[in-house]
Amino acid sequence: MYLCRMMLNTKTVAFHTLGCKLNFSETSTIARNFMAEGYTQVAFNDPADVYVINTCSVTQNADKECKYWVKQALKANAEGFVIIVGCYAQLKPEQIAKIEGVDLVLGATEKFNITTYLGDLEKYDKGEVHSCEIDEADFYVSAYSIGDRTRAFLKVQDGCDYKCTYCTIPLARGISRSDTVENVLANARKIAAEGAKEIVLTGVNIGDYGKGEFGNKRHAHTFLELIEALDQVEEIERFRISSIEPNLLNNDIIDFVARSRRFMPHFHVPLQSGSDHILKKMKRRYLRALYADRVAYIKQEIPGCAIGADVIVGFPGETEEHFMETYNFLNELEVSYLHVFTYSERDNTEAAAMPDAVPYAERKKRARMLRALSAKKRRAFYESQLGSTQEVLLEGDFKEGYMSGFTGNYVKVKQLWDPNLVNTSKKIVLKSIDEEGMVLFEEQQNILTLA
Ligand code: SF4
Q1: Are 351 and 164 spatial neighbours (Cβ–Cβ below 8 Å)?
Q2: Residue 396 CB burial class (10 angstroms; 0-12, 13-18, ≥19)
Q3: Same domain, 372 and 407
Q4: Which CATH number goes with the domain that contains 271?
Q5: Which CATH number goes with the domain that contains 220?
Q6: Which residues span the domain enclosing 414?
Q7: pLDDT digits over 17-76, tens only?
Q8: Which of 92, 117, 132 is the last residue of a domain?
Q9: One domain for residues 121 and 186
Q10: Which of 157, 168, 169 to mutate to test the pocket of ligand 1 (most atoms within 8 A of CB)?
Q11: Measured in angstroms, how far is the CA atom of residue 355 from the centroid of ligand 1?
């Protein structure tokens, strides 16, 4: 065994997370389970007794990424005990177990029991799998991230009952189920006690919150009731809704955010396509008219609100015309930025068996066009906010002598680095946009002091 464990006299563990905010909240929770067992967390490129890689299954690179991080772990400590968890581990456990250097693969029901599998940490000759049929993953485990960012991710819901034809998430995470309102409030207070100022609510389909709260299929509460309850948690300055399906984003939720001081004027709403023909093939639960109506209602009730949209390009059967429908739809819509995904075939999805695959180069070209549109949209949104008074929460990232932060409506601003200002918020007036697209500001003068 190497030096650092002897020096630290405790066992060490390192984590790497791929994918979404939900995965980050779960890695952070698993890390706390290790600390409770007396482990010390070290950086992933440091020698460690155990390496945990939390995987994602959304893109076809999942396999390559997993292999890459296993290699990184073994580069740091060739004797490190390597454990793979997460969505990809649930979907392809046997395939992952064959990766050189992997010791343990834990599925959706076992990842939170990880410390019960540790033993003497001697490496196995071949990877051992402890997984299950996804139907067995019908119970809920709380999770939240803390400590490594200004913004904490709070899991409130897991799984999904929708059947979007390109998506593997229901296969990796199971049915829709939710935490209890009491538990979510308790976790929010724990996060506040650790000093975080902002909480991002995360899940798989959080608009479906309340389903399976008490282990049954019924909704015990609605998402609106949950955020109304969280609005009473005075210890937290800001709440942000990570992403919500357009068909679940009703007027009551938008009205609530419009009048709330704690819930930020920022919605991330997956669109996926601006062509009704493609939306039907994706089995999305809305058509483009509903999406446009949601955007219009948000802008009517909260004019300065940021709206982000997910969009997939290159879905089977997407012709140039369908793509231009999407492009023109987004170009006309008052969205503030786009997250663009290039369609990739995922095993066991309906779409993977569909004819009329779009050539990969064409998918890439369409993605480039939408990313350019996203940059234009973000610039236009930022320009529309210049001169406005906002509140910024400054973060701890030091870059070339500057630090940055986001306003409530998700405008990224920067100022000269000052370590005393990390995780603090202040009122500012947005002034100009620099060559990198970051916004410069002036502090809002306190009229009283001037007088
Ligand atoms: S709503 Fe659709 S895309 Fe989102 S997780 Fe559920 S099945 Fe996947």
Answers
A1: no
A2: middle
A3: no
A4: 3.30.750.200
A5: 3.30.750.210
A6: 389-450
A7: 999 999 999 999 999 999 999 999 999 999 999 999 999 987 677 788 999 999 999 999
A8: 132
A9: no
A10: 169
A11: 21
CATH number for 119: 3.40.50.12160
Positions of the chain with pLDDT lower than 50, given as ranges: 1-4, 447-451
- For position 219, what pLDDT does the model report? 85
Q: Are residues 10 and 126 in the same domain?
A: yes
Closest Cα partner for 204 from 260, 254, 270? 270
* Domain tally, the chain: 4
Last residue within a domain, chosen from 233, 263, 293? 263
Structure token pair of residue 106: 């834990």
Token pair, residue 355, equals 């004819």
Pocket (CB within 6 angstroms of ligand 1): 160, 162, 164, 167, 169-170, 204-205, 245
Atom in ligand 1 nearest the alpha carbon of residue 173: 5
Pocket test for ligand 1, best of 204, 223, 310, 339 (most atoms within 8 A of CB): 204
Contacts of 51 by beta carbon, 8 Å cutoff, 6+ apart: 13, 14, 15, 16, 44, 73, 76, 77, 80, 81, 82, 83
pTM of the model as a whole: 0.94
Q: What is the pLDDT of residue 5?
A: 52
